[in-house]
Amino acid sequence: MAPANLRATTAGSNPGVTACAGSERDTRGAGSAMASIAHKELSASEASDARALASVVLLLRRYTDRHDFSAGVFTTPQGIRTATLPAVRTVRVTFDEDATVPQVLATCADAIAAATHEKSADVSLDFLVLRAAHDGSDGGADDVRILDDQLEAALRGPSVSPQAVAFTVTTHAAQDAAYSVHSAVSPGADNDAVSIFSDLELTRGHLGTSLAALDASVEANVVAHAHPLITLDELDQQHRWNAECARPALLTRALTLPGVILAAARSTPHAEAVSLESEGAWTYRQLVSRARRIAAKLTAALLVKPGGGASSAATAAAAADHPLGLKGHVVGVYLGRGPELLAALLAVQMTRAAYLPLDPLYPAERVGCMLLDAGVSAVITSNAEGLVHRVEVAARAAVPAPGTDASTKHTSSDAQPLANLPTVLVDDADEDAAADADADAEEDELEELRTLTHGSPDDLAYVLFTSGSTGRPKGVQVTQRSLVNFLGSMAELTGADESTRVCAVTTVCFDIAALELFLPAWVGGRLVVASEETARDPDALSALMQSQKVNTMQATPTTWRMLLAAAESETGEAGDDYRRQLTALVGGEALPTELAGAMLRKLGRTFNVYGPTETTVWSTAARVSLPHLTSIGRPVANTRVYIMAVSEPVPGASEPDQGFLMSPSPVGVPGEICIAGAGVSLGYRGRQDLTDERFPLDPYARKPGERMYRTGDLGMYRADGSLQCLGRLDHQVKIRGYRVELGEIETALAALPEVEQAVVMARPVSMAVAGVDGAPEEQMQLVAYLIESDFVPESTLEDDARKGSTNDLAKDLAEAVAWGAVYDEAYAVRDALDETDPSLNFSGYGNSYTPGKVHEVPVVREWVDTICGRIAALKPRRALELGCGNGMILLRLAKLCERFVGTDLSTNAVEFCRQVITEHPNFILPHCGLDIAGAHEAMRFVHERLDTVVCNGVSMYFPSADYLCSVVTESLAAVEPGGHFFLGDVRNANLLRHFHASVQTFTAPAAGDVASLVVAATAGVKHEKEFLVDPAAFLVMARAHLPPGLCDRITVDMRRGWHRTEFGMYRYDVVFRRTADGGEHDVGGGAQYKLHTWDTDMDSLAAVEAVLSNKAPGAKRPDYLAFSGVPDARLAYERILLAQLNNPTWHASAGALRGSL
Questions:
Q1: Phi, psi dihedrals of residue 1000, rounded to the nearest 5°
Q2: Radius of gyration of the chain (CA)
Q3: Other beta carbons within 10 Å of 1069
Q4: Shortest CA distance to 556 belongs to which of 600, 512, 520?
Q5: CB contact set of 94 (below 8 Å; sequence gap of 6+)
Q6: Under DSSP, is residue 227 helix (H, G, I), strand (E, B) or coil?
Q7: Which one GO biological process term can you cite for this protein (predicted)?
Q8: By CB neighbour count within 10 A (0-12 exposed, 13-18 middle, 19+ buried), where does 440 fall?
Q9: If phi over 0 gives left and psi between -120 and 50 gives alpha, with beta otherwise, what is residue 727?
Q10: Cα dihedral sign, 207-210-214-218
């Protein structure tokens, strides 16, 4: 199993190091890197230089995540006191991202050997390695020292290229050499970025560790990105940070959740325990009593012989025959939201069985798979809403997953392996009502319950299936010990007690529901369960929280954002006062900085919590505060967190776990977040292979055999011991040992004039292996999917342009449908998907300024929030989205509507959205429909009685103006009178030159000449493949192309936003309103306009104010004041740039041009 590879950090993203500026780097392979340095014929000095060079390369590999360096190696006089240096021996060290330490060392040896026998040339250097001449004094040749400041003047000499010398070290024999970090940068416009290390002593220590560990890493064949850097003092400090989180009292007592709740019922039997919204609350006595009866029914169903019934005597007899109760059994719980759900979950644990939470909103096939893979013995359900029938349907649909224990237990001949699955009903009304009314039986019931609550911390508490973007879900097994430890730590964190009131909004299938459901019972507080409808409606949810005096609330950032937005519409100060007393927990997805700031300002206490399902809900927590608003804080009780660089398994390891080589990362150096301690689950049920892969042995465990969990998240330690999550690890593909960025290949293909659109995928292919009999071997290869452009000579294109449009709508429709095939592949690649927040999935949204990479999260968030804000202002209730894509708009706006239909030409896009709205706990949207349709097919959905149609980010792929008119006409005809058609993200044809000039200037090499930049920008305009529209064209459309009386208003709005991006600067939105009365209406006809031109009549906002306030006697006020040519401040750079490009000889290079701007 190859380990996940750490994602490359961008310049400036790693505190303590900034990526160096320098020349373009050759990305070809390093040649014969597999050879061992031991086989090289090197002199002693060359071998010493190779070790020193490799130590620094491995250091910078961890600091910067780069794997391509240029270095200079000197031999200098003792003491280094000269003002100039001998000619530099230039070496180039480049290696594969997954290269091992022996390969890096061999590459360094090759480079030094080549430089020794060849004349060196001036090149851009990333760092220098110097080795002083030895005079026989003590000190090994491998004593790596940081070069002192005396060399700065020498580095400015003519023998060294004056470009970006960013990190300088020396191997020095003299014992009195000074230790210091030296960032040497020669003067020059291109030397802005240098390496800055926040702690000089730590940098020195890391370099020493790198050299000291070199032989061990070579022997163990460690991957270069896992080569040790951390010092013993740093590692001891991290162990002390983890030790501060120890709470042994939570582990020494034999606590189980049922035992704690039973104790609460005995001490405060009449305290309110749980209610569904504002309905009558169950007391703790009622909760435990109902749970006892469900537990008795469950025990009877599984242990009592047929005909024995579910009486207390029969149950007690069965329990006596089975002292372990139902230990080892898994019981499904298939119920709606309410007190019965909590009672059923408690009942299962009372019998020492584990519960499997099932959401009735899940598809039958998904529920059936979970039942089968978990190996359930029975299901607790209800006759209400046909649940018992639906779970029977799900059981019949169950199909074993290949490779699981279920697939070995149930053969292909088992057509319905769960056909006879026992069910236990919770709604025997006569029996339960009579029991609840019999208060005298309270003590007897609690005594009977004793035999059902003598559980053990080692009992399995629940099995919960994780949902992924691909593949079959995996069942995570959590013990009572882990659950108890989690609840105890959360009670300590929040200060929860018997006055605590928690509102539950999360589906029971999401692991964070455990806190909402069980924390109130743990401390003797009260649980308020929100209905599905209320949980989706921020106004209703806010009202419920205030009316029920909820003082503790857990939710995802998406839900908190909606709640804070709803609060803006409230009147009076009561709501603000209430929220300032609230304890808020936010987790489940990354916490945006702006939301953290809003929660800090408006809520009482806010805790940012982090953790995967595999380590029992939350593993770290931080009180949100300045300056690090999004820190994930410190580990929770009895939890240890390590930031690890993980190397692949050692060949020949006897156990899978023992093959992992892990190197802890120092403070400020990113690595994979690995979690150990009491919260670590038992792994995946029936999937030992995946358990071994994700749960390696904990190298720092006190008890042999304890495991840690590899989260797959990138993180780092801060200097104060707090943790920061930096996102997920990379999503590159590996072809024949090489890691490939698919976006770079797509960009290169799309640049060809013959290619209209390109999508590149890595696909398995069967290949026969020469000399080997049997089945062919499956390998990965790159496959490109292309749409050809209608490439014809330029003269022909010009002739066609003069002739005008062909009006061939049939051809346009065929071309539009062809996009579906391309985007089927584009949406299948989830390269920018955070599975915890699928509403921010911007896979496929390429950045023109950084080809091959998607836009940064804050940019995309601002973009989608702006769009959704504008659409929400139209107050949609029944909406259709044409081109829903990844669902970023759908998943936000559907919650505001009573009916929402999303369509797309891509089946992958539609299926992704379907999976989210049926499975993701924060986006269960039963009122949302999905379909395959093009942008021109809005009339197919006229029966939905639509008031809003949305088509965002699609118009640039329209084939012609005729098709655009067709889309507008069909969409307006599909909405009710007074409804709206929102056409968003339209590219502005007036700014095409600005766009291409900006992109080419930003991406041009610093040394490139300006004339070539002008040619590239002009070619970009000439060969633009997307569909752009002049905003004025929509006014012409209204008068000349739309049916009379269809539209009575068109509003064109520039895209707003703080970021200077192509989303905001070069695109705009158009809103069409269908005529409300059905009569004809001439858009703008008869209105009186007074036009002012900016910089002629107007030159400031003060001048505008003067016109608006003109009250001269007899002055006729027009219907509208119009201003033309108002400048967009965000485009000031581009306007100046176009003027500069008209005189390309003004600047010596593209870098000089950028500097002047």
A1: -65, -35
A2: 34
A3: 20
A4: 512
A5: 25, 26, 27, 28, 29, 30, 67, 68, 69, 107
A6: coil
A7: amino acid activation for nonribosomal peptide biosynthetic process
A8: exposed
A9: left
A10: negative
User: What backbone phi and psi angles, to 5 degrees, belong to 461?
Assistant: -85, -45
Better-predicted residue by pLDDT, 856 or 748: 856
Written in H, E and C, the secondary structure of 274-287 is: EEECCCCCEEHHHH
Within 587-660, strands assigned E span 605-610, 620-623, 634-635, 639-647
Distance CA 1041, CA 1063 (A): 28
Judge contact between 754 and 788, C-beta under 8 A: yes
**Alpha-carbon dihedral 797, 803, 805, 806, rounded to 10 degrees:** -90
- With beta carbons less than 8 A apart as the criterion, state whether 202 and 666 touch: yes
Tens digit of each residue's pLDDT (9 = 90 or more) over 322-370: 667 899 999 999 999 999 999 999 999 999 999 999 999 888 888 888 9
CA 592/CA 672 separation, integer angstroms: 21
The three-state DSSP-derived secondary structure of 797-840 is HHHHHHHCCCCCHHHHHHHHHHHHHHHHHHCCCCCCCCCCCHHH
Q: Is 333 helix (H, G, I), strand (E, B) or coil?
A: strand
As given in the structure block, the two tokens for residue 406 are: 């279920």
In which element (H, E) is residue 528 found? strand 526-529
Rounded to an integer, the average pLDDT of 168-189 is: 33
pLDDT digits (tens, 9 = 90+) for 848-877: 888 767 778 888 888 888 999 999 999 999
Total residue count of the chain as it appears in this document: 1157
Position 1094, amino acid: W
Q: How far apart are CA 1074 and CA 422, in angstroms?
A: 57
> In whole angstroms, what is the distance from residue 326 CA to residue 345 CA?
14
Helix, strand or coil, per DSSP, at residue 1135: helix
| Residue written as token pair 């430089």 | 115
Secondary structure of residue 1030 in the 3-state scheme: coil
Cβ atoms within 10 Å, residue 372? 26
SS3 assignment, position 916: helix
| Tokens coding 85 | 């240096």
Least confident stretch, 193-207, 310-324, 449-463: 193-207
Residue 1006 confidence (pLDDT): 80
- Sign of the CA dihedral 775, 781, 786, 791? negative
- Which domains does the chain show, CATH number per domain? 37-228 (3.30.559), 254-266+276-483 (3.40.50.980), 733-800 (3.30.300.30), 814-988+1028-1085 (3.40.50.150), 1091-1126 (no CATH)
- The conformation of residue 939, written as its DSSP 8-state character, comes to G
Would you state the pLDDT for residue 732?
A: 46
- Both tokens of residue 1144? 């390309």
DSSP string covering 295-351, please? HHHHHHHHTSPTT--S-HHHHHHHHHH-TTTTTT-EEEEE--SSHHHHHHHHHHHHT
> What are the C-alpha distances in Å from 368 to residues 385, 392, 394, 421?
19, 9, 5, 11
Per-residue pLDDT tens over the stretch 1118-1127: 777 777 778 8
Q: Which residues contact 215 (CB under 8 A, 6 or more apart)?
A: none
The pairing of beta strand 738-740 with beta strand 733-735: antiparallel
Please tell me what DSSP assigns to residue 954: -
Side by side, the strands of the sheet bearing 552-555 are 282-283, 272-276, 526-529, 501-504, 552-555, 583-586, 605-610, 620-623, 634-635
Mean pLDDT of 1061-1078: 86
466-487 CB burial, b ≥16 within 10 A, e <16: bbeeeebbbbbbbbbbbbbbbb
Of 52-56, 194-198, 714-718, 1027-1031, the poorest mean pLDDT is in: 194-198
Looking at the DSSP assignment, which residues form a beta bridge with residue 555? 586
The answer to whether 541 and 904 have CB atoms below 8 angstroms apart is: no
Q: How far apart are CA 515 and CA 491, in angstroms?
A: 10
Distance CA 382, CA 368 (A): 17
